[in-house]
Structure formats: C-alpha cells, structure tokens
Design goal:
Layout: H1 2-14, H2 28-51, H3 55-60, H4 62-86, H5 100-105, H6 110-148, H7 165-176, H8 186-191, H9 196-228
Transmembrane segments: 26-44, 65-84, 126-145, 165-182, 194-219
InterPro entries: Ion_trans_dom
Signal peptide: 1-16
Length: 235
C-alpha cells in the first residue's frame, strides 16, 4: 500500500512536466485521465484509512482534511479547465500548487512532515538575519544610485547604468551570487578604478559575511528543531 501510494503521488507530481505549458506536452485527455486516476487512488487510500480509524479521530486529523480539500480543489479545477478548453478560453491549472499536499499529508510521509515542520519552525528565527541582509542590500543600492546615477555611464550593450533604483537592487542581488561578476562593475571600473572598492566592500559584507551567517543560522536552527521534535510529534 505504501509503495502504491508513493507511486501515484510521484505520478501526480510528474504530470506538471507534461501539462501546458510544458516542454513535453501531452494531450489534455491523457493528462486528465491520469490525474483522475491518481485522485481516485488517493480517495480510496483515504477511505481505507477512515475504515480502520475511529470516526472522531479521523475527522480531527488535519492531514485528512487537507487531503480531502486537495482532492476537491483538483477535481474542481480540472472540470473548470476542461469546460474552458471546450470554448477555446485560455486558462491555467492553478491546482498544481496543491499537489505537494499529497506528499506531505499521507500517513506514510511521517519523515517528510517532520522535515517540513522543522523548516517551518526555523523560518521565524531566520527572519531577523534576512531583514538585516535586505537592509544592507537596499543601502548599498542607494549608495550605488548616488555614486553612479549621475555619471551617465552605460553598459556594454549601450543601456543606462545604475540609474533605476529597482534595477540596481536586482543587479546587486544577483551580484551576491557572483553570477554577474565582474560584468556588473565594469562600467564603473572603466570610469574610475577606485569605484572597485564599492563592489569589493559589497561582496565582502553581503556574500562572504551575510551569506555565511545566514547559512549558519538556518543550519543550527533546523538541527535544533529536528532534535527536539519527538518521533510522534509529526503525526
């Protein structure tokens, strides 16, 4: 039963690769039949679980309610999407975002729920580090706007360089990952080599300090919640 449940969960999640928009699209009839089959299996598994569980216990379990709601939403979305296709109305399958609920909430997924709850409990504790990082990013973006915004610099493609605040925030955010290094700093460096100090300071503070601190906080808090959570608490 566990193997069959995981197989159909995997099949249900994999349908997103073949539904429009998709790289390997399949006919709507094929994907809809497979999805209905998966939902019927989930419903049958839930019905079987209800037969072997006390009535009050079954309806008080949030996992069962989540699964039933996900099945209902998926069927409703599938029916609405099918009707809209008949009238050539373009739409999108919004219910795909609820499919991971099946992976998390079935009784067999105890370890997945435990990891998920550890992540959920960790998020509030890393918020302060994330806010400090965002404050640093916004302040450096403001400094970049003041330093380069009035220099009439241009990128290699001939576009304005660091004149729009939101674009500066995005470019510096990408620089944290070093994905656009050193291209993002070359127009300023060509104007004056001293401007390299600005980018060096930004990379040291945000990439090497904040990212290391962020990773340490996430790891330590996740490990703490994973250790203190008893085995039965994830049911």
């Amino acid at each position: 039963m566990r193997t069959a449940t995981y197989f159909f969960i995997f099949l249900n999640l994999s349908l997103a690769l073949f539904e429009e928009p998709a790289v390997y699209p399949l006919p709507f009839l094929a994907t809809s039949v497979l999805e209905v089959l998966c939902l019927l299996v989930f419903l049958g598994r839930l019905t079987h679980f209800a037969k072997v569980t006390l009535h009050n216990v079954f309806w008080k379990d949030t996992k069962n309610i989540c699964i039933m709601m996900a099945i209902l939403l998926s069927l409703t979305d599938l029916a609405v999407y099918g009707v809209l296709r008949l009238y050539d109305v373009r739409s999108i399958r919004w219910s795909r975002i609820v499919r991971p609920i099946f992976l998390i909430n079935f009784a067999e997924s105890r370890q997945i729920r435990r990891a998920f709850r550890s992540i959920r409990n960790t998020l509030p504790e890393i918020t302060y580090v994330f806010l400090l990082f965002m404050f640093s990013l916004l302040m450096f973006s403001l400094m970049a706007l003041k330093l380069f915004g009035e220099r009439n610099l241009q990128t290699a493609e001939g576009l304005p360089y660091f004149r729009n605040y939101l674009e500066i925030v995005f470019d510096l955010y990408v620089l944290v990952t070093t994905a656009n290094s050193p291209d993002v700093m070359m127009p300023a460096f060509d104007f004056s080599s001293w401007y390299a100090l600005f980018f060096i300071a930004f990379v040291i503070i945000n990439t090497y300090i904040f990212m290391s601190l962020f990773l340490a906080v996430v790891y330590n808090n996740y490990k703490k919640h994973l250790k203190v959570m008893p085995g039965g608490a994830c049911d």
